[in-house]
Amino acid sequence: MTIRKTTAMIAAITMLAVGACSKKAPDTLPPAPEGTGTDTGPSTGGVVPGSQQDFIANISSDRIFFDFDQYNVDAEDQTTLQSQAQWLQRNPAVRVLLEGHADERGTRDYNIALGERRANAAKNYLSSLGIDPNRIQVISYGKERPAAVGSNEEAWAQNRRAVTVVIER
Known about the structure:
The longest helix has 21 residues, at 108-128. The protein has helices at 2-20, 52-58, 75-90, 108-128, 153-159, and strands at residues 63-65, 95-101, 136-142, 161-167. The protein is α+β, with helices and mostly antiparallel strands. It contains five helices and four strands.
């Protein structure tokens, strides 16, 4: 019995000694090798081309707004969507999701349908500017994701919108 205990103790001490000799991770890592794709370079300021951050940084706005119970694209919305279309033309591999939203007034079903009409109106306008409609997905959140909380015209106006979101690859 003593030989087994001694053997077990020697094995445990050996394992502890070997474990104590293992390398510890350095506090700071060396820079990644050039050409590995982890560095975005000084010209982009750390923003990855074709990303949501790049989209936001290079367009006038990621959203358009609608009047009460409307889904038509007005002149101001057209300017915003033209800016988005130019960015999408510079980034032909990027796909986007158009989110349609409504204010809190109306039934859930009505607002889902209205949000879809708003997102589709934006999609149709982008398509008319030469953006392939297959690059654009549409979803409606109706009144479920308000941008502003409140039951007044100021909040409602911010919630009647279509938002363009880059689909990350």
